[in-house]
Every structure is written in structure tokens, then in C-alpha cells.
């Protein structure tokens, strides 16, 4: 982020507990408009929990989340959608009995207040769902369900988009294609946070990564630099590769 770019999202000393277990233990980071930021780390390091707190699914137990200069910690998801934050899920949850088109129509009606809504057919076309537009969501394969989940989020016109393992299960050609789409969205000014295990994909699309371990950031910077950090190697690759 250049010094004159104000972050659209600031996370400061965020804490989330589940009973006695501390899933986020003072996590801090920021994201700028137009930036693709990767959240990476081993299983259970708190990546999805961070997305769940930022998107309003969980209230934080401590710390601050600020979006566009306003504190949003504990604000419900549906209100955050209106303010311009939306997300996808590891396991998409469309309205299964509604058609693809109907699912997107609901999201269009529900979206961020302000700005012209995107054209439904153009969105379906762009994300390769036009041929299944009138089929129930339940009929879609897993890659198509992921695209519907993404389109549903995009239909609400987010300024901050949180992608939770969108790439998992996509084939190499689909990965290249969706990587280009994500980069184009960011080039249009959207801030995008990507949780992903596929490091090639992360390297290709992100400007920066935050590496998490046990609910804390242990590295912030380029992925190429992260993979040379002994602490990152230790936690991320299981220790046996550490110098
Ligand atoms: N609702 C919940 N109730 C209890 N524990 C939870 C809950 N959600 C997450 N956790 C725990 O918090 C920790 C962090 O989970 P989280 O899903 O955020 O990790 P992650 O980094 O996204 O992992 P993965 O890469 O496997 O998706 C894990 O130990 C998980 O079991």
C-alpha cells in the first residue's frame, strides 16, 4: 500500500474465543482499496474465523474492526452487505430450490445501497452461468456452485470482498480464468481478501499476504518473501524445511 492510500479495512488486535479456545489472538492487519490480500496459514490458524468476524457472522471478543473509517465489530452480516462488505463460503449455501437467476436476483435486490446494480444476464454470462441460469441451484456441480456464490456476492456491489477457498476444487484452466477475474475486480477498485491453500494461485493474484499461526499474524508482505522466513517455514511447512 502506498503511504497516501488509506486502508478500507483495518483489523486491530482482534480476539475471538470459542469457549476457552482462542481462535484469534490479537490479529492485526489492513487492506487497501484495489488490493488483493492473501490470508494464509496452516489448518486451524484462524483464517476463516477472521473472515467470519469481518463479515459479521461472529462478534469479536476484543480488538477493533474498522471499515471505511467506521467501527464495524459486531455489526450483523446483512447490515455489512448494505455497507459494502460481502463474502463467499468454503461450502456455498445458495437457495437450492431457486434457480440460479432467482438466487442472483435476491442478491441484487439486497445489495449495497448506492451505485447502479450490475446487469443480471451480463453477470451470469461473465461467470459462465448463463447456460444454467434457469436450473435450480441444487443441480449445479461444485465449481458452478462456487461461481454462483461469487456472483451472488458480486451482485450486492461489495467494496470489500472476502473469498474463502474459492479456488478449492477448480481445475487448472478454471483457476487461471478466475485469477484473471479477481485481478480485474481489484483493478476496478474492489478490495479483495483471499483465504486459500493453493500457493501458486495465491502468488499469482495477491499483492501481499498475511501469514497466520495460532490466531496471530507472523508475517506481512510478499508471498515470495514469506516463503524465505524461517518462522513461516516452521509453522507452514511443518518444521522439517526450516533452516
Ligand atoms: N464455531 C466454532 N466453534 C468452535 N471452534 C471453532 C469454531 N470455528 C472455528 N473454530 C476453531 O478455531 C480454530 C480456527 O479455525 P478456522 O476455521 O478459522 O481456521 P482456518 O485457518 O480457516 O483453517 P482451515 O485452513 O482448515 O480452513 C480451529 O481450531 C477451529 O476448530
From TrEMBL:
Any matching Pfam family: ABC_tran
Listed InterPro entries: AAA+_ATPase (IPR003593), ABC_AA/LPS_Transport (IPR051120), ABC_transporter-like_ATP-bd (IPR003439), P-loop_NTPase (IPR027417)
SUPFAM superfamilies given in the database record: P-loop containing nucleoside triphosphate hydrolases
GO cellular component: plasma membrane
Keyword Nucleotide-binding: yes
Keywords tagged on the record: ATP-binding, Nucleotide-binding, Transport
Domain ABC transporter: 9-239
Keyword Thylakoid among UniProt keywords: no
Residues that span the membrane, as ranges: none
Database matches in PROSITE patterns: ABC_TRANSPORTER_2
GO MF terms held by the record: ATP binding; ATP hydrolysis activity
PANTHER family according to UniProt: CONSERVED COMPONENT OF ABC TRANSPORTER FOR NATURAL AMINO ACIDS-RELATED (PTHR45772), HIGH-AFFINITY BRANCHED-CHAIN AMINO ACID TRANSPORT ATP-BINDING PROTEIN (PTHR45772:SF8)
Purpose of the protein: Involved in beta-(1-->2)glucan export. Transmembrane domains (TMD) form a pore in the inner membrane and the ATP-binding domain (NBD) is responsible for energy generation.
Protein name: ABC transporter ATP-binding protein
Provenance organism: Bradyrhizobium zhengyangense
Amino acid at each position: 500500500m502506498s503511504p497516501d492510500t488509506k486502508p478500507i479495512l483495518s483489523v486491530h488486535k482482534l480476539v475471538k474465543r470459542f469457549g476457552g479456545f482462542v481462535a484469534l489472538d490479537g490479529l492485526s492487519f489492513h487492506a487497501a482499496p484495489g488490493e488483493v490480500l492473501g490470508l494464509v496459514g496452516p489448518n486451524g490458524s484462524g483464517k476463516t474465523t477472521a473472515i467470519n468476524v469481518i463479515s459479521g457472522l461472529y462478534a469479536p471478543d476484543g480488538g477493533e474492526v474498522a471499515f471505511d473509517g467506521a467501527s464495524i465489530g459486531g455489526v450483523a452480516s446483512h447490515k455489512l452487505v448494505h455497507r459494502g462488505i460481502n463474502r463467499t463460503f468454503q461450502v456455498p449455501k445458495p437457495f437450492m430450490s431457486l434457480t440460479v437467476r432467482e438466487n442472483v436476483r435476491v442478491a441484487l435486490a439486497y445489495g449495497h445501497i448506492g451505485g447502479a446494480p450490475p446487469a443480471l444476464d451480463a453477470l451470469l454470462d461473465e461467470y459462465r452461468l448463463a447456460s444454467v441460469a434457469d436450473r435450480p441451484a441444487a443441480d449445479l456441480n461444485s465449481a458452478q456452485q462456487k461461481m454462483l456464490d461469487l456472483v451472488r456476492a458480486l451482485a450486492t456491489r461489495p467494496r470489500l470482498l472476502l473469498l474463502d477457498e474459492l479456488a478449492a476444487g477448480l481445475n487448472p484452466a478454471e483457476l487461471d480464468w478466475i485469477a484473471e477475474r479477481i485481478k480485474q475486480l481489484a483493478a476496478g477498485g474492489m478490495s479483495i481478501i483471499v483465504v486459500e491453500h493453493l500457493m501458486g494461485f495465491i502468488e499469482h493474484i495477491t499483492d501481499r499476504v498475511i501469514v497466520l499461526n495460532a490466531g496471530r499474524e507472523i508475517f506481512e508482505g510478499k508471498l515470495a518473501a514469506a516463503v524465505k522466513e524461517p518462522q513461516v517455514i516452521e509453522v507452514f511447512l511443518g518444521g522439517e524445511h526450516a533452516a
